[in-house]
Design brief:
- By secondary structure, the chain is an all-alpha fold.
- The protein has helices at 3-16, 29-37.
- The radius of gyration is 12 Å and the shape is globular.
């Protein structure tokens, strides 16, 4: 992981402690996979609650 990628990821992890509806977004699939590994919701993934998205 490149330096700024790690800052992006760690910042999102810390913000997710405060904002439960936070979604992670990156154009790097490896970074998105790392976010999923850190238990972050990634923008574009299916909702985790099992409920259908409002629409």
């Amino acid at each position: 992981m490149r330096g700024y990628d790690s800052i992006h990821l760690v910042s999102a992890v810390r913000l997710s402690e405060r904002f439960e509806d936070l979604r992670f977004l990156a154009f790097d699939n490896r970074l998105n996979d790392a976010a999923r590994g850190a238990d972050l919701a990634v923008y574009g993934d299916e909702p985790r609650t099992g409920r259908e998205a409002d629409g």
